[in-house]
Write a structure and sequence with these properties.
Layout lengths: L3 H7 L5 H10 L1 H5 L8 H17 L14 H9 L4 E2 L2 E2 L4 H15 L6 H15 L2 E3 L3 H12 L7 H9 L3 H12 L1 E3 L9 H9 L3 E7 L2 E13 L8 E13 L9 H11 L9 H4 L5 H8 L1 H7 L3
Antiparallel strand pairs: 1-2, 3-4, 5-6, 6-7
Helix pairs in contact: 4-7, 5-6, 6-7, 6-10, 7-15, 8-15, 9-10
């Protein structure tokens, strides 16, 4: 997986100073965050990944400012996930903690801009790291994000009922919504898009090309012997390109299904039996960038909602 240092080096140079300074400001909080909780560094990574993405897409107008305007507000939002009393945490399930994060990051408004997008991506990332993925359309989570930002959850009858029954109705409502609309991830399979698969395959002298009729060719470049060696002359080899197989192809930014990914790895011999296990194959996959691609439409729309 991509480290924070690798991620920093992949950002646009003009973002390096602010990214480094922001990371320094959250070091103490980072040291006191337990495993399984959303770290400040992950939220900052989500924020700067969004800024970097929009700037590279030529859509800088969708980002009015970079970085946190108040790290105290960021810490306050993240601290909600492990608030408790008498040694017992108030929020114990993953959906509950994700709800506190989505609500807190939006309401605290810790960044100069892109607060809704950062909260959206951070929540998706937190769920993903804890074995869950959104099971409804990106638009439905986008709309829920906007309802939180606009304080318009009262349109839901369940929220109105929770208002009458106790404190934190927003978090309790969002926790229920997330529980109903997430599903478990098959951990035997990494989450990657066709674009990321192409990058991975290039490490093994293979690649994807020629999208046609909802399919795409899997190509490989390899050495073949064109003339056998002898006592008097050396063996002659030539590098050739061949089509290995064909995959179904819904688009570069779509997720690669488990069956298709397993098929291409088998056809190319990139399997554990041949010394390429999943850890090696998916070594430099950056899940944050993949999630941005998968939820690109919602993130773009949230810039103007």
């Amino acid at each position: 997986m991509v480290t924070l240092l690798d991620f920093r080096d992949e950002l646009l140079p003009e973002l390096h100073f602010l990214y480094d300074r922001s990371m320094q400001e959250v070091l103490y909080f980072e040291e006191n965050t337990s495993a399984g909780e959303l770290k400040a560094s992950e939220v900052l990574r989500a924020h700067f990944a969004i800024v970097d993405y929009f700037l590279r897409q030529g859509e800088g107008e969708g980002v009015g400012g970079f970085g946190p305007k108040d790290t105290g507000l960021l810490m306050s939002a993240l601290s909600r996930q492990f608030v408790g009393f008498g040694g017992e945490q108030k929020w114990q399930t993953i959906p509950e903690k994700a709800a506190t994060l989505l609500f807190g990051l939006i309401q605290n408004h810790p960044f100069h801009d892109a607060n809704k997008r950062t909260a959206y991506l951070s929540t998706v990332q937190y769920l993903y790291q804890n074995g869950l993925i959104i099971g409804v359309s990106e638009k439905e989570l986008e709309d829920m994000t906007v309802h939180v930002a606009n304080n318009s959850l009262s349109k839901f009858s369940r929220y109105r009922d929770l208002q009458k029954k106790g404190s934190d109705p927003e978090v309790r409502f969002l926790a229920h919504w997330l529980k109903q609309n997430t599903r478990k991830i098959d951990r035997r399979q990494y989450l990657i898009t066709y674009r990321e698969l192409d990058k991975i395959l290039k490490r093994y002298d293979a690649w994807l090309e020629n999208p046609h009729d909802n399919q795409i060719d899997v190509m490989r470049s390899e050495w073949v012997v064109t003339r056998k060696g002898s006592f008097f002359r050396k063996e002659q080899r030539e590098r050739v390109t061949r089509r290995v197989c064909v995959l179904g192809f819904p688009g570069w930014k779509n997720q690669v299904g488990k069956g298709r990914l397993g098929h291409v790895r088998k056809e190319l011999g990139l399997t554990p039996e041949n010394g390429v296990d999943s850890q090696a194959f998916f070594n430099d996959v950056d899940d944050m960038k993949i999630l941005i691609e998968l939820y690109e439409g919602a993130l773009k729309r949230l810039a103007y909602r």
